[in-house]
Amino acid sequence: MRRANPVVLVLVLTLLLAGCAGGDGTDDGRVTLRFQSLAWQQESVEANKELVAEWNAAHPDVRVEYVQGSWDSVHDQLLTAFEGGEAPDIIHDASDDLADFAYGGHLADLTDLVSDRLRSDIPRRSWRTTTFGDGIYGVPFLQEPRVIIANATWLRESGVRIPTPGDPWTWAEFRQVTAELGGDGKYGVAWPLKEPVSATLNLSLSTGGQLFHRGADGKVTVRFEAADETVPRTIHDQVNTDGSASDSTLGSGGSDTLPGFFGGRYAMVPLGFSYRQQIVQQAPEGFDWQVLPAPAGADGLSQGVSPQTLSVAQDSPHKEEAAKFIDFLLRPENMVRLALGDWMLPTGTRALEDPALRTTEHDWAIGTALAGHLRSAPAQSVRGYPEWKDKVATPAFQEYYSGAIGLDELRRRLERDGNLVLARYQR
Amino acid sequence: MRTGTAARVGQYTALFGYLVFLAFPFLWLISTALKPPRELGSLHPTWIPRDPTLDNFRQAFDEQPLLRAASNSLIAAAGAAVIAVLIAAPMAYVMARHRTLLARAAGGWVVVSQAFPFVLVIIPLFLVLKNLRLINSVPGLVMVYVVWALPFALWMLVGYVRAVPAELEEAAAVDGAGRLRTLVSVTAPLMAPGLAATALFAFVTAWNEFFFALVLLKTPEKQTLPVILTHFIGAEGVADLGPLAAAAFLATLPSLVVFAVLQRRITGGMLAGAVKN
């Protein structure tokens, strides 16, 4: 008779012990709020944890528990938690992810919970990103414009005009500059367009592009008009006509383009403002880079953003306490700490005035100069947008940018196929 | 003779190439984990880091509770592997030896159940576990992993049972062994490689599983390694590559150890089976 394998016995015993140790902890009578944060960069996580510790030290009756979430999977994770009635009390997310949760009744309406201070400190255009119907379902607190990170030495030596927020390039001028900079296996620009839809739509606000039009009946339709054409046509022509933009980066994410940028293959890369952190970390010694504003169109430097937000779960039994914690977390001085940790811009007017965010170091000042031009992303409150984006717009833009289809076919797909998708959500 | 040598050289070359192909992701992971940020951003990446550093490992441990997460993963994966095999083995035996209509229907259901997507089952499962007060508990996660691993484990073990000649069991019965004695002394040892392979499959599946762990475990103390690894990834897929690679490298080690331990049993069992056949 063989003896039982000791390894198996140990594993079974370990499991049984783990089972006995299960449970959610004790209830000591205090209010405990769970705050799920999506902070991920070291400085940002530290800033969040420090602020939670400061709150807990000052509020012994309302303890906040920091829970680490992840951007990669937040939507599915929250959806399940909402359906199961186990959502965190305070939820960190992005405004473009809130619409379904807000309409689904999972998020608390903060209209009467947000303090007057916060309400007046954050501009109306930012509140619009979290307003669905008559309610406010999140507090927008961090945002980032899309900027152009440029090889400063390359630009200086080429003699092209260096744009500033006060005197930006037009889209036509941008195309001309990239054509001047490219050649001999090098490119004026590398567009990382793995996610082409939000980049295109947000930048198209500068030329007056809307794409989504809400009718008198409240229903949204897609119309790809002349103002929507400028940005995609510029990118298409840079890649396919001028050869001034690398076609190999069209399917890449922002980080993937950085080695080529550092290696002198591309003069410029359009990226989110927070990418400066990676550039500071990874750029070779002596690499001289600078931040430029994205090109401007008929509507100036306007561009769409989906700010990071803090919301309160509808099921939370302590909504007022949660709102007070959010108010604490977003005091101007704290908003600055969070913004510095994430290398992003705060939405709060007073926080934006902080000298730490107006320094020329790492071109913070360029970003703060752009903050006033940031608008609610065009797709912000359009129900069915995620499906339209994944099934219709992403492949259509990818094919257009690679030169596989023309502008008319792009328009046809965005409008005809897109409106069929949106109609299903608006019956 | 010369032709034989050439063939052998060709075989070894092909084998070496295949090993390199298999090992490439792992070696690249180690290389990345040892590179400082500036080397990670190089246009011409190097196999061997020019300026190797352990800072990524230090940062990974500083930022995230990797050891606690590894312990949770180990409990969940080992528990799932042991329980899945304990449940699947007798079921597989019955299905393999008694080919009734019910056994065939059960086999069909096993195949169909493999087609269910995660999203279809996750919310009902979440509600069931909530009612059982097993949300945010590693035993709850083990239960899910067992259920998830069972169909395929069953499928694998049915094959292994069928590979054991029924004549051996009949011979044992003729020699006077009872049903239980036959199963324990004759069938089970011959199935050892199959049991080990099935346990390994269940272990690796549970060890790498992300989605169930993400939605079922709420507090950081309970989270498993795959969930913790995503904390190094930001919005739009931006990643803190060095610490992520360091943490991912550490996360692969237990799987390799378990595989190394069980692999001897799989190989030994297979050889034993070959001789008996």
UniProtKB/TrEMBL annotation, chain A:
Entry keyword annotation includes Endoplasmic reticulum: no
Signal peptide as annotated in the record: 1-23
From the broadest rank down, the organism's phylogenetic lineage runs: Bacteria, Bacillati, Actinomycetota, Actinomycetes, Kitasatosporales
Q: Which PANTHER family match?
A: ABC TRANSPORTER SUBSTRATE-BINDING PROTEIN, ARABINOSE-BINDING PROTEIN-RELATED
Q: What is this protein called?
A: Sugar ABC transporter substrate-binding protein
- UniProtKB keywords: Signal
Q: Which Gene3D superfamilies match?
A: Periplasmic binding protein-like II (3.40.190.10)
TrEMBL record, chain B:
Its predominant location is: membrane
Q: Where does the sequence pass through the membrane?
A: 12-30, 74-96, 108-129, 141-161, 182-207, 244-262
Which UniProt keywords are given for this protein, alphabetically ordered? Answer: Cell membrane, Membrane, Transmembrane, Transmembrane helix, Transport
Q: Which GO terms describe its cellular component?
A: plasma membrane
Q: Which SUPFAM superfamilies does the entry mention?
A: MetI-like (SSF161098)
Residue intervals of the ABC transmembrane type-1 domain:
70-262
Q: Where in the cell is it found?
A: Cell membrane
Show the InterPro entries listed in the entry.
BP-dep_ABC_trans_perm (IPR050901), MetI-like (IPR000515), MetI-like_sf (IPR035906)
Q: Which biological processes are named by the entry's GO terms?
A: transmembrane transport
User: What is the topology of this protein in the membrane according to its UniProt annotation?
Assistant: Multi-pass membrane protein
**Per its UniProt record, what Gene3D superfamilies does this chain match?**
MetI-like (1.10.3720.10)
Similarity comment: family membership: Belongs to the binding-protein-dependent transport system permease family.
Q: What is this protein called?
A: Carbohydrate ABC transporter permease
